[in-house]
């Protein structure tokens, strides 16, 4: 879908796709786009984002513009029934990260927050069911979750987990959906001092109840989330998805220039991100 966005962009605006890296740099309208997503995760079928890998610079470029929202999306959960389970899991966790990061984004607002929370709730409830018995009704709930999360991050953007995921994907070709089970929980802990109440709201959904304080609800929610990732048999340590530890400083320097880092609720230098990655190793 992002390749289609890139092709449509260059066909109508000229130049190369690199000319449009960043936000709001597209001047002319794009030809009509009709998308049929084949996973429940990326949200590209609803978002104003296109992520294109520049293989020469080894970076994933974020191109952000309202004209990148397709005219029509046909979201059919029947297609999800043809997917292997590991792809269902990594896509759903990507959508989960979209929901969490858009929810705590400093530019979130009530309409995006509602979509984010809806997506979090649906994925927590239906992902385990989708793995046990992937009925069309259950897959439909994941498709709705992915679309809701896509609508939320299209307007409220993302955060540090995605900045690092883009950098790891561009430099080392790490599969996008495999990064979040490793880095989303530490990023949530890093953000805790500045968005305790919002992370408690997420914790309440994950746990099914609140603890005594917002802080303890948020922390217990993050811990439970990590347990969920372990039970889904995804990689949970950075060493499981990155082979060479010495690449981490460059990964973090590149992530510090990613547009998603601008909307992480707590600012971070590349050295602070490196510390977080070292702890996740
Ligand atoms: Fe993503």
Structure characterization notes:
- By secondary structure, this protein is mostly helical.
- The chain has two domains: 2-73, 3-Layer(aba) Sandwich (Rossmann fold), CATH 3.40.50; 77-280, Up-down Bundle (Dehydroquinate synthase-like, alpha domain).
- The chain has eleven helices and five strands.
- It has a three-stranded mixed β-sheet with strand order 1-4-3. The protein has a two-stranded parallel ribbon with strand order 2-5.
- A hairpin with a 4-residue loop joins strand 3 and strand 4.
- Helix 3 packs parallel to helix 5 (136-156), helix 7 (176-191) crosses helix 11 (270-280) and helix 10 crosses helix 11 (270-280).
- The chain is globular.
- The two termini are 32 Å apart.
- The mean pLDDT is 96.
- Bound molecules: fe (ii) ion (FE2).
Q: Strand-residue fraction? A: 5-15%
Percentage of residues assigned to helices: 55-70%
- The Cα radius of gyration reads 18 Å
Could you say what the CATH topology of the largest domain is called? Answer: Dehydroquinate synthase-like, alpha domain
CATH superfamily of the largest domain: Dehydroquinate synthase-like - alpha domain
Write the CATH architecture name of the largest domain.
Up-down Bundle
Question: What is the H-and-E element order?
Answer: HEEEEEHHHHHHHHHH
Q: Globular, elongated, flat, extended or rod-shaped: what is the shape? A: globular
> What separation lies between the terminal Cα atoms?
32 Å
Largest sheet composition: 3 strands, mixed
Number of helices: 11
């Amino acid at each position: 879908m992002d390749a289609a966005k890139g092709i449509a962009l260059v066909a109508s605006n000229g130049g190369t796709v690199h000319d449009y890296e960043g936000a709001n740099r597209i001047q002319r309208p794009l030809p009509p786009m009709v998308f049929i997503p084949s996973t429940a995760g990326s949200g590209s079928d609803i978002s104003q984002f296109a992520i294109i890998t520049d293989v020469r610079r080894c970076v994933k470029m974020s191109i952000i513009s309202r004209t990148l929202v397709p005219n029509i999306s046909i979201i059919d959960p029947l297609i999800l029934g043809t997917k292997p389970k590991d792809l269902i899991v990594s896509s759903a966790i990507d959508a989960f990260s979209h929901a969490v990061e858009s929810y705590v984004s400093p530019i979130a607002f009530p309409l995006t927050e509602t979509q984010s929370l809806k997506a979090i709730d649906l994925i927590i409830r239906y992902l385990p069911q989708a793995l046990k018995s992937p009925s069309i009704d259950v897959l439909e709930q994941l498709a709705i979750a992915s679309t809701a999360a896509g609508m939320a991050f299209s307007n409220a953007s993302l955060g540090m987990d995605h900045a690092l995921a883009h950098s790891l994907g561009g430099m080392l070709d790490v599969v996008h959906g495999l990064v979040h089970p490793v880095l989303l929980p530490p990023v949530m802990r890093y953000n805790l001092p500045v968005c305790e109440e919002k992370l408690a709201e997420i914790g309440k959904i994950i746990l099914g109840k609140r603890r005594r304080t917002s802080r303890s609800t948020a922390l217990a929610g993050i811990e439970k989330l990590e347990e969920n990732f372990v039970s889904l048999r995804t990689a949970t340590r950075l060493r499981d998805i990155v082979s060479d530890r010495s690449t981490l400083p460059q990964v973090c320097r590149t992530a510090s220039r990613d547009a998603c880092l601008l909307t992480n609720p707590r600012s971070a230098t590349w050295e602070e991100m490196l510390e977080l990655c070292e702890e996740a190793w």
